[in-house]
Amino acid sequence: MGCYFSTSKKSKIPGYEDPTVLASETPFTVSEVEALYELYMKLSNSIIEDGLIHKEEFQLALFRNRNKRNLFADRIFDLFDVKRNGVIEFGEFVRSLGVFHPNAPLEDKIAFAFRLYDLRQTGYIEREELKEMVLALLNESDLVLSDDMIESIVDKTFKDADTKDDGKIDQDEWKAFVTQHPSLIKNMTLPYLKDISMAFPSFIARTEVEEQEL
Amino acid sequence: NNLNAFDIISFSSGFDLSGLFEDK
């Protein structure tokens, strides 16, 4: 029964990739990739039933509201959407979430965060981008800071991080800055991912059956 | 004033991917 489900139905999902391949390229086990598939199917059929995660579905999952826009959620969606075709496919979902796994290499987390903050994808985090991100955060929170305070915080952060003093933060400067301030990448680790199989226990039984049949 | 701009940014709800794992 398990095999029937896995071979005939999953292979019809656009962008479906073999869990053993995905497990070999990420910190996830095959069972965990199978559990992520269950999560993926739930998310990807929440609005448009096509087995692909659209931005609205991503926003609905994050905020319980399909229309809520958020600069950072937009950037994360764009980074997950590696093929840049407007949807997150299963392989993209698993590989991207792999970076957020507690056991993923620190280097990968640092690099992903850099790309997240490099809003205009110039290869650098620029002062204007940093200020734009601070303003975006203030816009969605109750935190009120005067423009002078914002300028002062952005200036100081830039002075500390831009060690080459060329007006932009490159990847090496970012890496050095994060090493000094590890809290900066705490968002890059999702403890949930260590328990993903437990979060979807119905899948474990099915996966065990499939493995026995193999 | 030891506030770091990146620490402030990290408070954004857009960074919290836990919603993906919550039962809807």
Keywords summarizing the entry:
heterodimer; A: 214 residues; Recoverin, domain 1; 2 domains; two-stranded antiparallel ribbon; two-stranded antiparallel sheet; 12 helices; 4 strands; globular; B: 24 residues; EF-hand-dom_pair (chain A); calcium (chain A); EF_hand_dom (chain A)
Annotated CATH topology of the largest domain in chain A: Recoverin, domain 1
Helix-residue proportion of chain A: 55-70%
**DSSP strand content of chain B:** under 5%
Helix-strand makeup class of chain B: mainly alpha
Between the first and last Cα atoms of chain A, what is the distance in angstroms? 12 Å
Overall geometry of chain A comes to globular
Give the largest chain-chain interface (CB within 8 Å).
A-B, 42 and 22 residues
Protein name (chain A): Calcineurin B-like protein
Function (chain A): Acts as a calcium sensor. CBL proteins interact with CIPK serine-threonine protein kinases. Binding of a CBL protein to the regulatory NAF domain of a CIPK protein lead to the activation of the kinase in a calcium-dependent manner.
Main location (chain A): membrane
Subcellular location (chain A): Membrane
Structure report:
By secondary structure, chain A is mainly α. Chain A folds into two domains: 111 residues, Recoverin, domain 1 (Orthogonal Bundle); 82 residues, Recoverin, domain 1 (Orthogonal Bundle), CATH 1.10.238.10. Chain A is built from twelve helices and four strands. The N terminus of chain A is likely disordered. Chain B contains one helix and no strands. Chain B starts with a helix and ends in a 15-residue tail after the last helix. Chain B is mostly helical and 24 residues long. At the A-B interface, helix 3, helix 4, helix 5, helix 8 and helix 9 of A face helix 1 of B.
